[in-house]
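STRUCTURE:
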């Protein structure tokens, strides 16, 4: 029996000794070790910060975007965007299951979504079939490998596949929100009109209760319309999160105070200081956004004398997949919104 490392270090080509996520390059040959799962991939859900960066680099040209994606996978053996450092996740069908994993409740032909990042998933793209620019989903012909430690969710039969994929990509956000929000909190969600933001709105409203206040920030009429349609935000602010003082002014003007908890779900850089300034001393900022700069947040908070707890947006927390999918089942408006976008 040929067993690889449960964490996948046997596939790290460089630098030796690294874990797959931090590695520069992975071995993406599709010969299976006995503790790996081979997946025929149908769709990649590219991380929003990564997809936005690729669109910009390609001048929004689909052919050029495809070239960039192929080149990333060619050079790294995984879809690990070298600029944003982020990946995404995939859906596909189990094509083979290593002999050491036969006891798992999984069989060839099962359809699943990976719940680990594409930044650590060995991937081969044979063909890019369609790029869905409005949803960051990319249909491909290709294969990928999940390591023994790699988590996944078998796709639920009651939800459309693309809707489930979109929610699972950002599953950590609503699940962390459920853990962080306390009754009576004022919760500020920045980028609330996006997919993670909208799922967080539901959990924030549920957990903050009638004595709490949910404040949604997004930029642009379209995003504000999406948020209003959900009926979850007590206050909606149409303001650019890259402008910290404008955000602070809008929040204090509308609410008369700062947030107990701020959740950053934006897909563009330079929004750290809006999140920090809008949070009260002793409050918490949860940076789910992959466009967050650790340096900008840490030095920026110090620079304005802000004593806030700052959480890195771990994409995983216990039961995150169940929580994210359950939000869609609990909230028909959210389900409808996701269904309209992810057709
Ligand atoms: P999304 O659906 O694209 O939502 C992003 C939202 O931010 C959109 O509503 C967008 O508005 C808004 N926005 C953009 N620029 C803004 C600005 N200047 N001011 C205020 N709002 C602005 O993204 P998502 O899929 O929810 O992902 C959100 C973030 O989470 C991304 O950074 C992504 O990389 C990250 N992420 C993290 C993890 C993790 O494990 N921590 C996992 C997945 C994703 P428009 O639509 O009008 O542009």
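SEQUENCE:
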């Amino acid at each position: 029996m040929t067993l690889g490392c449960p964490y996948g270090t046997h596939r790290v080509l460089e630098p030796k000794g690294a874990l797959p996520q931090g590695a520069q390059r992975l071995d993406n040959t599709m010969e299976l070790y006995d503790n790996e799962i081979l997946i025929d991939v149908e769709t990649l859900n590219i991380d929003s910060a990564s997809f936005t960066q690729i669109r910009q680099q390609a001048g929004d040209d689909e052919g050029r975007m495809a070239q960039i994606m192929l080149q990333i996978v060619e050079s790294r053996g995984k879809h690990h965007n070298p600029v944003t450092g982020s990946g995404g996740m995939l859906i596909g069908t189990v094509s083979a299951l290593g002999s050491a994993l036969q006891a798992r409740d999984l069989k060839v032909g099962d359809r699943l979504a990976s719940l680990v990042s594409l930044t650590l998933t060995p991937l081969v793209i044979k063909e890019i079939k369609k790029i869905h620019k409005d949803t960051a989903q990319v249909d491909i012909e290709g294969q990928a490998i999940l390591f023994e430690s790699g988590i996944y969710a078998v796709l639920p039969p009651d939800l459309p596949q693309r809707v489930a994929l979109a929610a699972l990509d950002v599953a950590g956000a609503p699940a962390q929100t459920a853990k962080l929000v306390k009754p009576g909190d004022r919760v500020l969600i920045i980028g609330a009109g996006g997919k993670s933001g909208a799922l967080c709105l539901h959990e924030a409203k549920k957990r903050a209760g009638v004595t709490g206040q949910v404040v949604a920030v997004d930029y642009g009429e379209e995003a504000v319309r999406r948020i209003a349609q959900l009926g979850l935000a007590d206050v909606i602010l149409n303001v650019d999160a890259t402008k910290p003082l404008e955000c602070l002014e809008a929040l204090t003007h509308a609410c008369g105070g700062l947030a107990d908890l701020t959740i950053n779900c934006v897909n563009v850089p330079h929004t750290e200081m809006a999140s920090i300034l809008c949070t009260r001393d002793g409050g918490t900022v949860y940076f789910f956004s992959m466009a967050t700069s650790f340096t900008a947040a840490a030095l920026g908070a110090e620079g304005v004398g802000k004593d806030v707890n700052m959480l890195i947006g771990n994409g995983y927390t216990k039961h995150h997949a169940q929580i994210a999918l359950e939000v869609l089942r609990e909230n028909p408006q959210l389900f409808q919104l996701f269904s309209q976008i992810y057709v």
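REMARK: The radius of gyration is 20 Å.
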